Amino acid sequence: MTAPFDLNDDSVVVVIGTGAGGGVVASELARKGISVVALEAGARHLPEDFINDEWESFGQLAWLDPRTTSGDWRVAKDFSGLPAWIVKSVGGTTQHWAGASLRFQEHEWKAATTYGPVQGANLLDWPIDAAEMDPWYTLAEDKLNVTRTGNRPGLPGNNNYLVFEKGAKALGYKEVSTGRMAITSRNDDNARLMCQQTGFCFQGCKWGAKWSAGYHEIPEGEATGNLEVRPQSHVARILHNEAGKVTGVEYYDANGTLQMQKARIVCVAGNSFESPRLLMNSASSMFPDGLANSSGQVGRNYMRHMTGSVYGVFDKPVKMWRGTTMAGIIQDEARHDPSRGFVGGYELETLSLGLPFMAAFLDPGGWGREFTSALDHYENMAGMWIVGEDMPQETNRVTLNHDVKDKYGLPVANVHFDDHPNDIAMRNHAYKQGQAIYEAVGATRTFPTPPYPSTHNLGTNRMSENARDGVVNKWGQTHDIANLFISDGSQFTTGAAENPTLTIVALAIRQADHIAREMSAQNL
Amino acid sequence: MSQKESLRGLTRRDLLKRASAAGASFVVGTGFLAAPDAAWAYEATHLDAETFATLVQMARDIYPHDQVADEYYVIAVKGYDSADAAAGITAGIAALNAAAQGKGFDSYLATGWERDRVDILRGMEDSAFFQQIRGGLVTGLYNQKAVWPIFGYEGESFSQGGYIDRGFNDINWL
Hints:
B: mainly alpha
């Protein structure tokens, strides 16, 4: 049930983007009786629409609008026009995510204090901590049906996990399990169907067992009658008045017609490329460097997690593609232990790709028998993904590329990224451990596979205690403009080692609560 | 004998001989390419047969899978046999043959050992032509549903209810 609001209705909260951040803040506000218009660049795709074929699904869901890249990261060479593997759809990248739902560790909220000075890193403590986030995390875990929380059982281990677990235990790792996953593990949780071990978690769960804002959160918000989602609506600019308050947004509707929606409050949640791009494309004579950019930090401190993969080939079949894609984790290396030669830590998580994506991602650009003899044993492969904390750097940033325009004539985002020496040291450590895990189970060959286009995009509108250090305060409210909020992962001060979605959701629930309170108090 | 002479007036029988001398498992005819057992055939319309046959061999040398039959490589590159692509491909294959001749072979297709052909390819690895062919094969070859079973890949399982009752944890050698 949609609630159509008038374009001139200036009492609505406009939310830009409907993923883990925007989808949750929109629906949470609607549940509290607040009128919300959510503008989503993508179309609506429900479980029955998902396609369990990697390239076809990629064409259906991926954000393929032009972007450019620079810097020494290998993604800029291998996938120069595709810095991120994220989604353009109602529900955003929660359609694609694998479901790993981990809380930050306590020390990760205070990275600057814990790690001390790291040359070249723009580290900062979050203005919030683990104790403050605890109740919001619990609400997020309940919303997402996260396994191994709230008495929900863990998922069973698939073939890929069983290989991974055996190798992990052989190396002496203790914190090994099928993880905390936003995938329903029994049939009695919120009437959602349990995981059917189908694979293709990345292509959208056709059973609806994996949580997505697209088919769980948004429809629940719409059912309140207070949320109107306008799909295929690309926001071009945020407008403001002479007092420096935002007043509405201009967007291109599904027909490509420019519309203007008035707003009382605007929440930006377009992921870490589009959110800063939108603030910068909204520059005006009052805000020549873009909205909320008095600190100069909009677009800076881009983080993508230190990532990589390890694949192992065995002399017998594994069939890693069968079952849940990422239900497997080793957490022993997530600790902060500088004796390993780097600050922060990393998680190892099971991962599988189908044959078509394995050919594209195992060794991008690779060819000849060294490459094809690996694929020849695809059936005997096991795989894991590395995800660790990367260092925020001021020069890793999203800027406007005025030489390349999107179909609306707007400058696209250029994404510049150089690996920090800490990222490289951590990746090399993780490759070594990952390869040792598979060798302990008898792998005849292992592959330290380079990072894929980024799915965890963080930090480009970061949260800070002081206005000079970042873009938003502890509520995600911009330091400069009281009725402008950032609701996505771009507000991350630092990235921590954990997959970010649970934290984005917890922050969004908390932000909606804050906005509702401030609206009631007439402060907004 | 120059490359031009080597191609002039070749009979089907000559081509057969040349193809087998080169270790190729396909046969070039007038405007078409066929398996020796005629299980499949593809008739090139915009590229000449020799050029197309060379392109297929190049595709196999880039992504060699001995258990994958030629027909899948033909399918992977036949999109280049079009009015738009033909001129570029013809020029690229001519450059490949020139590179082969630079190393003392009559042509790329007549270069008998894979290691020699790979050596020729390495020399042009950074060219736009090589990267066009290699990049296109990533999807052109590996996204053919018909090749998936050759690698053991099962594709979608939703239509069969997933693997919850069909072996998601059936590994038995650990």
